[in-house]
Structures
1.
Amino acid sequence: MKPRVLVCCNTRVRNEYLVGEALARLEQLADWQWLASEGTSTRPGVWGGPSEDAADTTRLLAKLAEGYDALVVCHGSPYVDAQVFAAAPRLKFVGELEGDRFANRIDVEAAARRGIRVVDTTHGSSLPVAEWALALMLIGLRNAGEQFRRLVRGDEFRRSRDDPGFRLGELTGRRVGLIGLGHIGRRLVELLQPFDCSIVAYDPYVSKELAHALHVGLGPLERVMSDTEIVVCTAPLTPRTHRMLGAPELDLLQPDAVFVNVSRGAIVDPDAMIARAGRGDIRVCLDVFDPEPIPAGSPIRDLPNVFLSPHIAGVTAACGPRFFSFMVDELERFLGGYETLYDITSVTLANRRGALLPT
């Protein structure tokens, strides 16, 4: 008998994410059903759910009582907690397609108490974020933002040996600093391999063994900011990282450095960022800012050494189906008796809650 898998999400996710080869693989692997759940959340700071409609919870409890081995949830699903687990004695696996690295849709501790594996495939959007980070690094190195501004203003076409894009425009062999070595940072490390960069990262949640396997050095934030030529922020926004980069940290950037942020704008103090970029001796490439959208009168919009994009790094049509494809990979591993790769663990939760790990 095939295992039984229940997918609980809204109609948009069902139609846009559960498609293609991954859906075919799931149909080969398991008997699966979709439970439509269209609820939303009004909780501040919680993106994408969970549903606060009690009727959605009632429907989920009744459906799980029919007997399922795995539950996959996404936008529209109610909160998956102890009462849900109690209604599903066969349940051994819960997966979140998108958005639960902060445990907003699943009670991870309650799942652990019942021996239920919890995985998350939000990092399906990390791939394009890493690609855009690489692109912004190159744009910054070539001072392409300022060159573009000159061209669209109709200025005379010229190239100068004094331009930092001429003096320092190549990525090969550069010293790169990463703030955060999660899924985005690790993918960026892969993309940087052909450029023979030396890479050092600040991430208190990453083991020395993982960094060694990636050929990445680890160091304190101050050294990452001061000792590298390109600094890329890929850290999650947590209570610990909010405004982590202020004037003292940004002042550590070397003259001619490139600073890239593809994570969350609130990690950086916006006034300090404007002041540091306004000195004109570094190049800044931002996909995110605080607030968003950037106010029309913000000075950051007009600085010639600043390149801006409107939080597009992780927004591509391929991401939704990739979330689901990664989840089917995890189901294949788990149901086949292998270890899953993308577990939400105590370390994951500590990171997202801004808690210090025990030493």
2.
Amino acid sequence: MLRKAWRSVVSWLSARLPIAAIIEFSKHKQVPVYRGSVWYYFGGVALFLFITQVVTGVLLMMYYQPGAQTAFESVRFTVVYVQFGWLVRSIHTWSANLMIGAVFIHMFSVFFTRAFRRPRELTWLSGMVLLALCLGFGFSGYLLPWNTLAFFATKVGTAIVATTPVIGHSIMEILRGGKDVGAETLTRFYGLHVAVLPALFTVVLAAHLLLIQIQGIHEPASWEGKAESQKRTMPFFPNFVLRDLLLWLIVLNVLAILAVMFPWEVGHKADPNASAPMGIRPEWYFLFMYQALKYFPPKIFGLDGDAVGVMLFGVGGLMWALVPFWDARLPGGARNRVVTYVGILVVLGIIILTGIGLA
């Protein structure tokens, strides 16, 4: 009965959509199989976690009330009184952290395998935009519970933005909706988090996935010069897709365990008139930048030390995003070494500074 119903649904859809052509294309699309092909799956993991974010975010929106007098109370009501509300909120928060982690891993895997090189420059650039939007999700969503840690961490984060020369204070006031963090800031961050950023993310993600389908999956450098018979591949559908779905199931179990064993705390309601508690720091994915700024002296050649640090991070981020273009200008023999050394230094710097910040 179920099989007959399923066939009827597929038949109905096939008469209206090119499902057969899509399946046929997927069967002929090949995915390289080698020792490093495990990194291919982290893009799919990030996609699954984004879907989880959307689903749990919509559920949380049904009870959330943005406002300095209502935000914290609505979150507490969801966690305490709504059936499984605490679980949905924990899954939403944990999946946000895991998604950013998966995007970072995916980015570094693409970097070290040189998958950003011609003709995949646009795929790399769209991926960098997605990473920036993920960080925007984390920054804007952190304030929404309107608890003490979120309030003062946002105050510190937006103050760092203000150190950007010329435009820093203007950007800070646009983010805050005024001179200081308050009800206007919460409203703006809520709008960014549930409307602006999801819309931008969906459009860029669609372009990113389309580019991957058009260009195919990057083949390892070790395959250069090899005959087709020496290259081991597998069909994208159903082989790769089923493996991807299996990993999604594993990630879902990990997410459920984290949400149940380590539920996210509500904290205490923010009091703008209170003094900042000790140990305020940003979330782990901003911690390496926050920690690095501590090592800059107050003045560097007459300029504010934090401003110099922000400028250096901006230039560094721009150079990282444009790696397909400056990499192409390096001598052929030097390209692999330079890119590898730069990547290793960046990874070690992030790990060390984050570790110091967490200690």
3.
Amino acid sequence: MKDSIENKNDNRTDAANDVARVLNEALPYIQRFAGKTVVVKFGGNAMTDETLKQSFASNIVLMNQVGIHTVVVHGGGPQIGRLLTQLGKESRFIQGMRVTDSETMDVVEMVLGAQVNKSIVSLLARVGGRAVGLTGKDGGLLQARALTLENTTEGDESDLDLGQVGEVSSVNAEILQTLKTGGFIPVIAPVGVSSDGRSYNINADLVASAVASVLGAEKLLLLTNTPGILDANEELLTGLTPDTIAKLVEDGVIYGGMLPKVQCALEALESGVNSATILDGRVENAVLLELFTDSGVGTQIVQP
């Protein structure tokens, strides 16, 4: 009996020491990021898996509690697609962008601005966070203009018509600064508005990059459904610079759907954001692992 009690005590001590080691490792990172702004793009599996959703919410609230000003920008493509299917409307994509006519735009606003946004705010509240949900139309937060794509069809120089798909022309930082001063976590749905009142569906990565830029964020985190940027041997690459990124694109290592994410990260860096990381949202507690551990997770991109 005595040996059993001693073994249990030893196990408890070991577990406590493990926690202490983790906290000691996290301390310099907490000190580094305290008082700074971190923008997190929330999407992919992290938005649909219940365990990942709970860990994400806890991560965000913990960051806020230790003095990191956190802004969340979310997507919602799968949820939009499901509702469109239920309504008998086919989703159509051009170069990865959802073609958005007026009917689709109504669905986008309903899903992103009401359903998804409010569910994230509620999730954060359940773990003690003080979050405020916004769309880019609230207070003119996201001013937008139509996004035009070049036609890649040989011999056809006309622009592709995506309907009400937009890009960010400006961000009203005053709203976000007010929320920051009050200790709130802004949760932004990527719907913008033009000067003539027209609504636009905007890619969440683009919005996160623009928000990080205007706020002078310390870090931009883009959650994805991949580990990050992998080399030809499927090894994770990190500590990349704009020059190494350009070489990887030239060599075909970075291609397809990773290209626009990398471009968003580079644009944020060009605007003064210190670093950007493309990380795997399928990993539980990915945000804390990236911010507060020596090894981090995902692919970090920095200025040289």
